[in-house]
Design a protein that fits this description.
Subcellular location: Cell inner membrane; Cell membrane
Number of helices: 11
Protein name: Transport permease protein
Helix content: 55-70%
Largest sheet: none
Number of domains: 1
Strand content: under 5%
Keywords: Capsule biogenesis/degradation, Cell membrane, Membrane, Polysaccharide transport, Sugar transport, Transmembrane, Transmembrane helix, Transport
Shape: globular
Radius of gyration: 24 Å
Oligomer: single chain
Distance between the termini: 73 Å
Structural class: mainly alpha
Membrane topology: Multi-pass membrane protein
Family: Belongs to the ABC-2 integral membrane protein family.
Length: 280
């Protein structure tokens, strides 16, 4: 004797309910498709028409890092750590460059995607996320290629500690996203903010410890530099490349809390004023 499902008149199990258009799964799939399309659009716009195609996305920053590293190695032959200045410089410049690129591109996300954001399906979050993911992936690839080439061709006897390096990638991307989102609002509301920000952050290259370590400067200067999250990031990066370097000043919690605070503020403001920015 067969047993039938009492909920089905015919005895067959009912078909599963389709996913509602407004459900979380549907929204996630829609966001993924939109973000992917925006990423492909940016790749085509930035690299699709240039000589070398998408390869230029890697060669351009790679060449810049190597040329700057070589130039500074000729001027300052004795690094604070190790025997190779090009490696010492690269371990400071690579995370700084990753932060700069991510924060700058995220800050211009609304302006870059403004024509497409006239469609209701494309949100400000999609525009920010697309630029962040694409430039984060490109930046990580560039960092890997640059540091790999340097460690292979420079006789520096490097003993890598992967854990600090992975932490640096995460902290750098978080900081780039946080600063980029906040600047996205300020750039959209105040036209002069880009010039002001450029002037204010001009000493950041020096203040982030790209050319020196935190311990090289006097204690009075250390007190000011400590509040710069990037000095913690560059120190942590060098800890992953120099086994004898164990900086005690690094506070990952401080970097995370600072970045999350800035990101929260930027997200709240962007959610409030994104329409004003698009109509500006």
């Amino acid at each position: 004797m067969s047993v039938t499902d009492p909920l089905s008149p015919s005895g067959a199990r009912p078909a599963p309910h389709p996913v509602a258009p407004g459900s979380g799964v549907a929204r996630s799939h829609r966001t993924a498709r939109i973000v992917s399309a925006l990423m492909l659009r940016e790749m085509s716009t930035r690299y699709g028409r240039s000589p070398g195609g998408y390869l230029w996305a890697i060669l351009e920053p790679l060449g810049g890092v190597l040329i700057l590293s070589l130039a500074f190695s000729l001027l300052l032959r004795t690094p604070s750590l190790g025997t190779s200045f090009i490696l010492f410089y690269a371990t400071g410049f690579v995370p700084f460059n990753l932060y700069q690129n991510v924060s700058t591109t995220v800050a211009r996300a609304l302006n870059f995607s403004k024509p497409l954001m006239q469609y209701p399906v494309v949100t400000w979050g999609d525009a920010v996320l697309a630029r962040f993911v694409l430039n984060a992936l490109v930046g990580i690839l560039v960092a890997y290629v640059v540091l790999s080439l340097i460690t292979v061709f420079v006789d520096a006897h490097v003993l890598l500690d992967i854990a600090p390096i992975l932490k640096v990638i995460g902290l750098t991307l978080l900081m780039g996203l946080a600063v980029g989102v906040l600047n996205c609002v300020l750039l959209g509301l105040f036209g002069a903010w880009e010039t002001i920000w450029s002037i204010v952050t001009r000493p950041l290259f020096i203040a982030s410890g790209v050319l020196f370590t935190y311990e090289d400067v006097p204690a009075s200067v250390q007190g000011f530099l400590w509040y710069n999250p990037l000095i913690h990031i560059t120190g942590l990066m060098r800890q992953g490349f120099y086994s004898t370097y164990s900086p005690s000043y690094i506070s990952e919690l401080y970097v995370i809390c600072t970045c999350l605070t800035v990101l929260f503020l930027g997200t709240v403001l962007l959610r409030r004023y994104h329409r004003d920015i698009l109509n500006h």
